[in-house]
Design brief:
Shape: elongated
Distance between the termini: 30 Å
Strand order of the largest sheet: 6-5-7-8
Number of domains: 2
Order of helices and strands: HEEHEEHEEHEEEEEEHHHHHH
Radius of gyration: 26 Å
Number of helices: 10
Length: about 350
């Protein structure tokens, strides 16, 4: 029950931030906001303040901001209507929803780097049979302090440095063993592995596993800002690369995309690890929501921005008939995607249980 409440809180936060981006810019430029709604379906509570009705609805899987005159059928040409505004102002209203999701993700990453996050130390916890580290005489408990003279403090950077040495014959590891400093030359073993994007790449391995020793890492205020900026940029680039590989069939949608069911499962896992893990999840989901909403699909923010660009080039809006057609296409794409993602979540998380049930 607690995990379910956390899931709804995170989902509600992401939606609230997104819709607030649309809301605040619309208000700023003088467009009338008729409704600000969190959730869909029957209303739980609602309140009208000035021209806007604020409501919280029963089904907490979405939200919307209803602007005056935001479709051709309703627009009467009044100055406080959305379609009466020039394309540049309408684009700002649309864009600020995803932008605030980006800002939320960035702020979460910034806080994580500044407050501190858990990471594995550079202590060896295990040696794999048939790999060079064991053959070179390394032992469990050895603390690796440098790779070819380059200092390492944590397991992640140790792993990256060793994997990048795949072309080298050997690597010199500086080790502290029972307060004694040693230099051990270890042969590199190359192996082909799948990366995050499902691409085969050759990496260097020596056959060590981490010790179950975790420390908290903190960074300075300005350094955390830069690390958060870099993390947000890297996540954005990785996501777009993954989307492109899904489109051209080189990456499985089943393994790389998830829906509300999968997000609930991930949220439950993160909740058991503490607040930093939850904040990291919020950051990743918020940035991902921004990226998804900026895709050029009708009914998404990116689709609306694309149509505004077309309008700017043509000098006039789409006809009512054309608007209805593209909206229907967009809804069909989103609905189909939702079905596929939900099916993938069910088969990935509960496939074995469903198969056993059907065999009874």
């Amino acid at each position: 029950m607690v995990h379910l409440l956390i899931f709804f809180f995170i989902l509600g936060l992401l939606i609230l931030v997104h819709e607030f981006g649309h809301f605040i810019v619309a208000k700023r430029i003088g467009v009338k906001v008729e409704k600000f709604s969190l959730g869909f379906g029957p209303r739980i509570v609602s309140k009208k303040k000035r021209d806007t009705e604020y409501s919280l609805n029963l089904i907490p899987v979405g939200g919307y901001v209803k602007l005056a005159g935001d479709n051709l059928e309703e627009c009467k040409g009044n100055p406080d209507e959305f379609l009466s505004r020039p394309p540049k102002q309408r684009a700002a209203v649309i864009f600020f929803g995803p932008l605030l999701n980006y800002v939320l993700g960035f702020l979460c990453f910034w806080f994580i780097f500044f407050a501190g996050y858990p990471t594995l130390t550079n202590k060896v916890g295990g040696l794999l049979d048939g790999f060079p580290a064991k053959e070179a005489g390394m032992q469990v408990g050895d603390k690796i302090t440098a790779v070819d003279g380059e200092g390492v403090d944590f397991w992640e950077e140790l792993q990256k440095k060793i994997q990048s040495k795949k072309a080298a014959g050997t690597v010199k590891l500086s080790v502290v063993r029972r307060e004694k400093k040693l230099d051990i030359n270890v042969r590199i073993k190359e192996k082909s592995m799948d990366d995050q994007l499902g691409q085969k790449r050759s990496v260097g391995l020596i056959g060590i596993t981490p010790f179950d020793e975790i420390v908290k890492v903190k960074h300075g205020f300005l350094e955390s800002f830069w690390l958060a900026f870099k993390k947000t940029g890297d996540l954005t680039l990785l996501t777009y690369k993954a989307l492109w590989r899904i489109i051209n069939g080189k990456l499985s949608m089943r393994e790389s995309m998830t829906g509300p069911l999968g997000i609930f499962y991930i949220t439950s896992q993160a909740a058991s690890l503490g607040i930093i893990a939850l904040l990291h999840l919020v950051a990743v989901l918020s940035v991902s929501l921004a990226i998804f909403n900026l895709l050029p699909i009708p009914v998404l923010d990116g689709g609306h921005l694309l149509f505004l660009l077309v309008e700017k080039i043509r000098g006039k809006t789409l006809s009512l008939k054309a608007e209805r057609i593209v909206t229907q296409i967009g809804l069909t794409v989103i609905f189909s995607l939702a079905i596929i993602v939900t099916y993938n979540d069910l088969s990935r998380l509960f496939g074995d249980k469903i198969a056993k049930f059907l065999q009874r």
